[in-house]
Amino acid sequence: MISLKSLAVMLALSMCVATAYAEGTDKKALTLDLAKKVIAAAEADARSKNAPGGTIAVVDDGGHLVAFARLDNTFSASANISIGKARTSAMFKKPTKVFEDIVNKGRTTMVALSDFTPLQGGVPLVVDGQVVGAIGVSGAASAQQDEEIAVAGAEAVKSPGTK
Predict the structure, then answer these.
(1) In angstroms, rounded to a whole number, what is the distance separating the alpha carbons of residues 79 and 158?
(2) CATH for 37
(3) How does pLDDT run across 122-131, given as a tens digit for each residue?
(4) Is residue 84 helix, strand or coil?
(5) Which of 25, 95, 118, 119 has its CA 20 to 30 A from that of 11?
């Protein structure tokens, strides 16, 4: 026979599980339409800056490619670099400039990480305070311009009140 105390404990545990499940259902996700919006904003910014080229990659929060664009006259290696920047930013939920700065300050062992691109130009995509993916840009006039274009793309999906 189940005691009243045991029943109360089981009920409390089931409520915790139900609450945890309900909280998990509010996860935001990167859609293809949202990824296209990010690319359009980044491409518009690149053109406004007269960037000599640029490759724009958008990945989901797991680092999987969702959308990609390569502007004319962009060097071929920029494709893999932009995807690497986006993946690194999405997986760590931070701009890749953070990692470039860490490496430049002497922590060179960071480059030993697998599938890790510590180069400026990767920026998380944040919707309602949640990282849903990231954008990576490579092949513009400079690393700083890669970053500026990526930020412009990320700004296209920010919600009001999001940092």
Answers:
(1) 25
(2) 3.30.450.150
(3) 999 999 999 9
(4) helix
(5) 25
